[in-house]
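Lab intake sheet, docking and co-folding queue.

SAMPLE TYPE: protein with bound small molecule
LIGAND NAME: zinc ion
LIGAND FORMAT: SMILES
REQUESTED OUTPUT: full 3D complex as structure tokens
PRIORITY: normal
SUBMITTED BY: R.K., bench team

The fields below were copied directly from the construct record.
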Amino acid sequence: GHDWDIFNINDVCNLHDPSPPFCFLHSHQKSTRNSILGDQYRWPTTIPYYLEDSLEMNAKGVILKAFDQYRLKTCIDFTPWSGEENYISVYKGSGCFSSVGNQHVGKQRLSIGSNCDRLGTVEHEFLHALGFWHEQSRADRDDYVNIVWDHIQPDKKHNFKTYDDTLSSALGVPYDYGSVMHYSKTSFNVGSEPSIVPRIPHFMDVIGQRMGFSASDLTKVNRLYRCTKSSTFVDSCDFELENICGMIQGPGEAKWEKRSSVSGGPPTDFSNMGQCEGKGFFMHFSTASAAPGGRALLESRWLYPKPGAQCLQFFLHNSGAADDVLNVWVREDDLVNPKLKLFKSISGGVMGSWELHNINLNVTRKARVVFEGVRGTGPSTGGFSLDDINLSSSKCPQHIWHIRNITRLLATTPNGEKVYSPRFLSPAGYSFQVNERYLATYFYLTSGPNDHGLKWPCPWQQVTMALMDQQSDIRQQINMHRMVTTDPHKMLTDGTEYYWDDPRKVGYKVTASDGSFYYRGPGTGTSSFLTHSRLKSRNFIKGDDAFFLFSLEDISHLLESWPLVRTAVQAEDSLVKAADQGAPRGAAGNPAAVTAVVGCVAAMAVLVVSMVMARNAWEKRRRRESDEVVIIQDMPWFIEVSV
Ligand SMILES: [Zn+2]
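RESULT FIELD (auto-filled):
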């Protein structure tokens, strides 16, 4: 398949208003008069949205997942439109594009077209809608990148303009090569030569990432919208600080200790892998020194998650006895019934390495998370170690695929040979599997124990495949996501069978070395999940290990058309609004004047009103034309490939 790592900009400049690249200003710095994106271009922090029928099912699921990223990492939330004056209506246009900022047009459309159904791309388009331009449009960009004008398609050169910095502000954030809003090195280029060359060569392969928000992207959103908290983030702890994030020890003799290494393992923490001197701590309960039956409690501070589903993620290193147990409890603030609720008991498992655990909690009020280590009776030379704990108000990924020694695997796996994950079961009962082939990632339905009772072809199950960025704080993780939805109408290329039919019917037999077998259906995914240089960026690999997170979810409820809310009223509203905002303000455009005329001669009033209407319509048209100029068009990143 052909992979796109470029994106297009049709035009980013409003002809009526030479808009600055970063069109927002600190209110204390400058009047917003010169800026297309002053306060009036902001959305409320909870943005009403509408998903139009034209959207692909996979795109709908991806959009909702992108909203979850906003909820976790910013104070921006999204709510289904229920008649609010202005809202974002998402549809499938010819590409990925958006206007910049809240245009106050009532229904403001944003397009997620073919191949735009990627998490980073949706985040990018919504950043435009929130009021952000491309990173390399910043006034100071010439200090950081060279624009190679000779290598740019002649009719696209306008996309590389800069603007007077009296008109723009980057919200005090330094130039960010890693922004999800930055062009790639080959955007609008001719041939294969780069059109943008970072002045620091290291960033050549960094620019153009579409994995997700960079730290600076988040700083800018949070500054522009004056965010103080996000709606779903609850807590994160890497145990680097002396106060251990406000955690407390329970009563009893056995205690958890803050350590940087343990002779029985682990030799280092997980966050830093021992690479930073004087840093790199974790909490350890030594079962080597505890008496049999000894218990040690480590309790979080009081936390205030949103009621409902929460995901507790942490890394656990077990070097203790086979019968040592780690219990994960929740202590809710309930005076009537103040007992602990057990959510998970972990014993044995993979020993001697840092392992990721995801535990779904269900807390309805203020609560503490409690880690209880229990000493067994078997011989122990180590114990339990905890690091990089995160709690958020969201569902956990369903499955984890831990790939060890991935560098060696990538180096030694011949191109073309695939590495398959174990088979997993979705909540609905579908069996599936993912493979890796030199960073190409594909999803397959496989035969499983429930197949006789399942619907075939498999309808509207969406898989989320994420390569985890093993950053300590979940808010700073830029996981690489890929999502695929099973369309039950999709046919195999020869047109004889349904693509997502029972793998026993459309798949082939896979025999394991022990003689057991199963069936694997056709796969769908992407041939370049991630480039090698991007794989080495961030913390996708830590200690030479990588973690894939998978979920397979039923999204058939997204098939239904969304109810339209008071559309007629909406149309009238926007007509009046267009008049209110029309630039020339003559008597004819003044509602007070219109009222006066109505009081005099009714017939005349009708005439005047229709003139007003005509003017409104003209204004609306003009506005729409000028809006088209500020709509930012992006090219999709990947082309879907099937194998
Ligand atoms: Zn864009």
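REVIEWER NOTE: The pocket of zinc ion is lined by residues 124, 128, 134, 632, 634 (CB under 6 Å).
SIGN-OFF: pending second check by T.M.
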